[in-house]
Every structure is written in structure tokens, then in C-alpha cells.
Amino acid sequence: MEAGLLGKLGFDLEVAIANLVNFLVIFLLFRIFFFKPLQKTIDARRQKIEQGLQNAIVAEQALKDAQSQAHDVLLEAKKQAEVLLEDARTHAVKMREQAVLEGGTERARLVAQASQQIDQERKRMEEDVERDMSRLVASLSEKVVSGEHK
To answer: Is the N end or the C end of the chain the one with fewer CB atoms within 10 Å?
Structure first.
């Protein structure tokens, strides 16, 4: 009685089975020729993205290390400059004291000479610091750039 009732509603078992078989065939074809290649493409892109993220992390760490090294080098250069300046000042003070003792034109000559030496020492230190900074920046830039391309 149920088959008759379903038949009256327009349900045909043979058509339903044929539709099911057609659906399974189409599903398998899609799975083989569409979904698997699509999944491979998605996986390849995912790997490229993950590799890019890992490279970015490595480059970021290299940049942080380079900045830290630059900071350390700058601090060391400043300390050396301060020591040299302090030595130059001490030397100038001693020369001034000696000039005061000797007096007259000799004193003026020594003061001028000490001032000139201090100026020369300051200029030399500024040039050294600038040259060291230029080398450091170039070196660090080269390290960061070569680290990003690996």
C-alpha cells in the first residue's frame, strides 16, 4: 500500500536509484578531477604562506639583533669618546697649569696649542665616530638584507 501511495505522489523507485547512481558518479568525478587538484593548490599556497611567515620571523629577529649590536657599538663608541675627551681635558688643564707657572707669552702659546690640540682631538673623534657609524650601518644593512633573501 505504501508503494501505491508513493506512486500516486509521483515517486518512482527506479528513477530514484538512477538519480542516486548519477549523483555518485558526478560526485566521484568532481572529487577526482576538481576537489583533489584544488586541495593540492590550497596546500601549496598554505606552505608558501607559512614559509613566508617563518622567513619574516627570522628577518625580524635578525633586524632586532642588528639593532642591538648597533646600540652596543654606539654605547661603546660614546664611552671611548668620553674617555678621550676627558683625557684631552686633563691634558689641557695640566698644560694650562704649566703655562701659568711659566707665564708670559709662553703661557699664551701653550694655551693656544692646548686649545688647538683639543679641537683637533675633538674633530678626529667626531670623524672616527662618524666613520664607525657609517661602517656599522652599512654592515647591519647588508646583514639584514642578506638575511631576508635567504
So the answer is: N
